[in-house]
Amino acid sequence: MKKNSYVRFFIYGIIGLAALGLIMQLVNNTSNFLLSTLTSILFGLVIFGLLYYFVLGRRNKSSDDKKYKQAVKQSHSKYATHKSTTKSRSQTKISPIKKKKRPNHLRVIDGNKTKSKNRA
Fold first, then answer.
1. How many CA atoms lie within 13 Å of 19's alpha carbon, on the beta-carbon side?
2. Domain ranges across the chain
3. Concatenated DSSP letters for 4-60?
């Protein structure tokens, strides 16, 4: 446990010296400090942009991703709210009431109802 505390103090000391060096450079040589800071940030952004473009941008997307995006696109086009022109009631055609049809998959089976079962 003592070894861990020595490492912690060492790391805090390094961070403290770095902060002290930054403050001293900021006070003594402000223009060079700002120039070096901006150069470092710009250099980091360029490297990040290049890595992002070449590594992540050129990655082959799987067919599942393409299918998912196509499905999302179809869903949006199907369920999108279209602006419809409203017609006045006098212009709309009133359709006659239609008789409901029975579903095709349901049938009535006529059985022999006069015959009773002996359940004794």
1. 6
2. 2-62
3. HHHHHHHHHHHHHHHHHHHHHHHHH-HHHHHHHHHHHHHHHHHHHHHHIIIIITTPP
- From residue 106, give the alpha-carbon distance in Å to each of 6, 98, 100, 103, 111: 82, 20, 14, 6, 16
Sign of the Cα pseudo-torsion (51, 52, 56, 58, in order): negative
**Signed CA dihedral, 84, 85, 90, 93: sign only:** negative
Neighbours of 33 (CB within 10 A): 16
Alpha carbons 31 and 23: distance in angstroms, whole number: 13
CA distance 20 to 26: 10
pTM: 0.39
pLDDT tens sequence across 45-97: 999 999 888 887 766 667 778 888 889 988 888 887 755 555 555 555 666 77
- DSSP assignment, residue 89? T
- When computed from its CA atoms, the radius of gyration of the chain, rounded to whole angstroms, is 39
